[in-house]
Amino acid sequence: MYIEKGDIFIMDYDFSEMLECILDIRDSYDSEDYNPRIYGCNSDVMNKALRRLKDQLNKFFSDKHCDSVIFTKNTDNKFFGIVVKPTKYNVDMFLKGDMENGDSFYSYIVEFDSKLFDPITEYTVNNILAGLIHDVSEVVDSKTVYEVKCAIDAICCGLDQVPDIILSERLREVFRFAVEEAIYRMRSMYNYSYGDLVLPNEVVKSYGLTDGFNGEFERIQSLRSDLDTVNRYDTLVLNWFFYWAGKSTIYDTLPIYTLRKYIDCTGSSLLKSSAYSAIQSLGTVTSHNTYIEESKKKSLVANIKLNGMKSIEDDLYEYAMRVKNIDDEASAIQLMRQINSRMGIISDYLSEEDLSEHERKRWDKLYEKYDKIREEMIKKSIYSRKMYGLFVDYNALMNMSAANYATLNSMY
User: For residue 387, is it within any domain?
Assistant: First the structure.
């Protein structure tokens, strides 16, 4: 159904439920029960708002499916806005050349950047709604799949490569990451550089969201730093992938370092997850010299730590014997410090190392034994100085008289 708005007709759709969900997300983010350590699972209000927004997106884009909507606390990384990541698709369709122009992504996940809701940026829920509708409609449109395929063909043509030669299990996840990163850069309105001219798409215009879209884009420009004025290169990661994959061997794991750098730089949990999956697929090969060298270093450090723990385990019996025979304050303080130091080492080892259940029980038990020795020492009678042996006051012997008779008869 259409309604008249000035000189144009727009689709009549009630966005009030979506706007309310965005308001609840904002209010939950500002509330005291927000837990930034668990992305996508914060306060109860946040959870409900994210689920409701997912349902509303499925209602609006009825021929597509939103798997989930998540919220990521982003404080230390660059602003990313909204990420719409396609899911449950066969990445091989981009390489085999059998794709039809009408192909599109069916399912997707939406991720919100917490910086979208920063009061300093003077956001409105209408702005965020327009940005959300724009980015989702762009990603699920068939032109996205087609343009990514065209970009891949152009890259491979320039490198004189045949795309499907890289179809291996080891490279497939890296390629998936490159595709998803390119889709974000090609389709998200939040990725445009300062000074770019961006027009609303047909969905935004048809549903009367143009004003909200323009307002959101102006706000995005205010979030951009001077570093963002450089030219965009939407297919940078795709270019990197094909350049490297064309020379790749089954032992090559050097791109792991590039992917780790990407993870450190991006604030998006979805893109981090894709990069992690790519690293895992590459990291299964252990015969690369550099990779083996790293493994050896890690093994050496682990063996040093384990030998240190065994030494602490052997010391237990010595400390148990010393506690039984100790009775002066100075020795007790020194021994207590040594025991506390070893207990601290054991505690750090348990919290930092990836241990099997058997190993964890072993070192837990050792910690408890040291704790028992410490408790035993606390209960002992400790004197301020050693209280045994024969003591003689030579000054009193040299000056024997009736006045110091009591001193001469003192016994310890």
Answer: no
